[in-house]
Amino acid sequence: MKNNIFAVIALTLVVTSLTFAAPPKWEWRPFMDAIRQVETGGLPNGGLGAIGDKGKAIGPYQIHKVCWIDAVKFDPSLAKGKYEDCLNDREYSEKVLRAYITRYLPEGGSPEDAARIWNGGPKGHKKSATLKYAEKFRRIYTKELERILRDVD
Questions:
Q1: Using 50, 70 and 90 to split pLDDT, how confident is the model at 10?
Q2: Phi and psi, residue 63, nearest 5°
Q3: What whole-number distance in Å separates Cα of residue 138 and Cα of residue 119?
């Protein structure tokens, strides 16, 4: 009986955490373009086919398998694909990135917070080790926003 109560409580916590995760209130495209440039900028084909971190990260967003697993747990529709799809499928990779960020970004979090989470894991936005990555992201993200504004004019 005691185990059943704990199971119900655990399930409630999981469902609640999934229910209240809200996507950020900023635009994804400039964010994703900046992340891609930080991760694989300058590589041919926009980073498609890129392998980094000694073979542990793949594709234009340099997705690690543990990150993919986490994203699939948050968004089970991603299980239609497989980790290896992150290597050459930009659209699928972007869905993985969005799910991961949506899962861990605190409400009201900024694009820079999201970039630091992408770089440093669920609590990356609190780690000093992600500050250098954030600085590089910020420079590129600002250029992306400026480019969008120029294109609108």
A1: very low
A2: -85, 125
A3: 13
Integer Cα distance of 97 and 67 in angstroms: 9
The Cα 105–Cα 89 span in angstroms is 24
Distant-in-sequence, close-in-space partners of 98: CB < 8 Å, separation ≥ 6: 23, 28
Distance CA 55, CA 116 (A): 21
With helix as H, strand as E and coil as C, how does the chain read? CHHHHHHHHHHHHHHHHHHHCCCCCCCHHHHHHHHHHHHHCCCHHHHCCCEEHHHCEECCCCEEHHHHHHHHHHCHHHHHCCHHHHCCCHHHHHHHHHHHHHHHCCCCCCHHHHHHHHHHCCCHHHCHHHHHHHHHHHHHHHHHHHHHHHHHC
pLDDT at 17 over 70: no
Which tokens belong to 104?
Answer: 């861990």
